[in-house]
Amino acid sequence: MLSVFKIDHIIGRVNPTRIEYVLPRIKDLLNDLHNLELIEFEMAEQRRGTSDIITVYRPTFAGHLIALLIEIMESEKPQPDISIEIYNLFDSYFKEHHSSYDVLYAALFKKYMERGLFDEFGIDILISRLNSGMQIKMIDDLVHRLELLSFGDTEKALLYADLLDEVLKKLDPNTKELLFYENKLLLEQKMATRVQVIHKDFEQRRFELKGRADRIVLEANCENCNTYFVVDIEILYYLRKRNFAPHTPNLSVPKSECSDCHKGSLILQRL
Amino acid sequence: MARISSISDIFRKDDDGEYIRSNARLAQKILSYTLVAQKESPAHKYDEIFYDRDLARWLLDHYIEYVERFQDRPYNRTSESNQN
After folding, report:
1. Neighbours of A55 (CB within 10 A)
2. What is the CA radius of gyration of chain A?
3. Domain range holding B22?
């Protein structure tokens, strides 16, 4: 972070110009954007041969990314140059961030770009996050831990699942294990708060599979014979099924076969 | 004016589609201006410096609230911040 030297102009009070009229509010906002690490203040410097010392500003990486996303949001036409610039920004971001999510998303973004899908899958997720109402305090809340997606469109969901499969196959085993484990923790924690009947069995199975990063434990219910089960399934299989939830009548994960009554009526929760 | 205290504040809207923070749109325009500064700089670097007065001048022409305010009538000489 650069040193901050903020030296205000003396605003003419006798005969204010329009600029001077609006400047205080603008400076307040620049301060707010600075607090969010979107704008930096820099060493004051002289300008136009005067001895005035004035503050200069510059956007940060985060500020530039948000500015580009605003440009895309406001544009009615595709903006391929901006998309490429955003991709390049992320490319440099991922070179400095190495969590399993970052590695996954670096590979996914590259795949999107190769397939001409970066706008659809890469930029849209960022814009939908900005417009979602979710709390995004700083830029890390926007770009870190991008969740695996689900879609309201079957074709898109299938395409995404295929892309994810392709990328996951090429991830190194350690990254993949860390990524699955992270997802396992998140999903099982959500499941723990929604278990309805067999709490002890759920906890027991979850404990037994604590070393299996690729499997998650869920409570499932058969709506035909009303039996509750604790099941464990592959995370990838579950995420793939969850992707189709928007197309089921009650937005639930598509049903599986019940091991008791053998009907396709076993309901998995949508976590 | 309510402060912008998170990135969400720049974008969040209410059920009627209105920005919750009255400064949200202006904050967006300020960030948009950084792209203008980038385009105008010889190096086209994204982190090109800019000056608040140049920004204000640009906003007077491109931020709809200012354009409308100064279009037809004389402005109140009390600065915006002091009116609130």
Report:
1. 20
2. 25
3. 8-74
Chain A: residue whose CA lies nearest to B67: A18
Interface test with A, best of B28, B44, B45, B46 (most A CBs within 10 A): B46
How does pLDDT run across A188-207, given as a tens digit for each residue?
A: 999 999 888 888 999 999 99
Confirm or reject contact between B31 and chain A (CB < 8 A).
yes
Ordered DSSP codes for B15-40? TTS-BSSTTHHHHHHHHHHHHHHHHH
Q: Is B27 within a domain?
A: yes
Determine, for residues A26 and B82 on separate chains, whether the beta-carbon distance falls below 8 Å.
Answer: no
Prediction ipTM score = 0.87
Record the tokens describing residue A38, joined without a space.
Answer: 């979107």
B34:A26 CB<8 A: no
pTM over 0.80: no
Residue indicated by tokens 């912008």: B4
Look at B12 and A133 and tell me if their CB atoms are within 8 Å.
Answer: yes
Structural domain total, chain B: 1
